[in-house]
Write a structure and sequence with these properties.
Layout lengths: L3 H28 L3 H4 L2 E9 L12 E9 L4 H13 L13 H19 L7 E12 L3 E12 L5 E10 L17 H16 L24 E5 L2 E6 L12 E6 H4 L5 H7 L9
């Protein structure tokens, strides 16, 4: 004879366990929402001009910083803000970074006015420094960041620089090249990058790059210091002077993931396997 109390107890246990697993799965689902849907940041900006001029006006002497500030309280938000601070630079290229753009702006103005006073009223060198930090791409496990710097302190020509960071959401740390690229396949990767570079620039294989003004120690482009993250692939960025004269400008290549997958470490391939998520507008 079936014990109704026992059956009822078993049914209650089954319902309880089922509810637990459903709620656990729902909670897990909530915790794996792409970070882009939870990321909250505001655009911050500092502008200090010598004569209250607008940066777009000719001959304006100014310093300007633009950067994102992440408002969340998570460890990742704090890590991203630290990464942003590490990318902000001193306008005079001294030190490791400008931790406080507001102080940098006042220092820029003070030093310009001091030099103008020392040189006389006729001294009118054009000084400006402009830096922006932004997000280039996001994946479920990665954030891509970039910074662009334009600087002129009255020399022969202004300088331009771009840098990238690829930040792990898990560790909050910027990835190194050896954490992305298989070190045993660097030579083959350089050959592939050079092949894609020639295709994008429409340079025939028989044309030596050195004949076009590029300064290379081998027939192939080296790995650049700056590698960035794009929704479609990796960005290889060569600073002015790194492989070519200033007059030829910088060199930037977008290498699709499909073209370089075999040169990436399996651990990095896993981080990009889910594809990009939309950045917040």
């Amino acid at each position: 004879m079936i014990n109704r109390r026992t059956v009822s107890s078993h049914i209650s246990l089954f319902i309880g366990l089922t509810t637990y697993f459903i709620l656990s799965c729902e909670e897990k689902k909530k915790n794996t929402i792409p970070f882009a849907e939870r990321m909250v940041y505001a655009d911050s900006s500092v502008l200090v001009s010598i004569d209250q001029c607008h940066p777009d006006s000719g001959g304006c002497n100014y310093i300007k910083y633009d950067w994102p500030y992440f408002h969340g309280n998570s460890t990742l938000d704090r890590s991203l803000n630290q990464a942003v601070r590490s990318m902000l630079a001193h306008w005079d290229a001294e030190g490791q970074g400008a931790a406080n753009p507001y102080q940098e702006g006042e220092r820029f103005k003070s030093e310009y006015l001091s030099l103008q006073k020392a040189m006389g009223a006729d001294w009118q060198e054009n000084w400006y420094f402009q830096q922006s930090v932004g997000l280039s791409a996001e994946f479920n496990s990665l954030i891509g960041m970039y910074t662009e710097i334009q600087r002129s302190l009255g020399g022969a020509h202004p300088s331009y620089q771009r840098r990238y960071l690829i930040v792990s959401k898990e560790s909050g740390m910027a990835l190194k090249q050896y954490e992305m690229i298989d070190s045993l396949k660097v030579d083959q990767l350089c050959q592939k990058v050079t092949e894609l570079f020639r295709m994008q620039k429409q340079i025939p294989d028989e044309q030596a790059l050195a004949d076009l003004g590029y300064s290379l120690s081998s027939p192939y482009l080296p790995l650049p210091d700056a590698i960035g993250l794009d929704p479609e692939g990796l960005v290889f960025y060569y600073q002015p002077y790194s492989i070519a004269p200033y007059a030829m400008g910088d060199t930037e290549l977008l290498i699709p993931f499909a073209q370089i997958k075999n040169f990436l470490l399996p651990s990095f391939q896993k981080l990009i396997s889910d594809g990009p998520v939309a950045l917040p507008s």
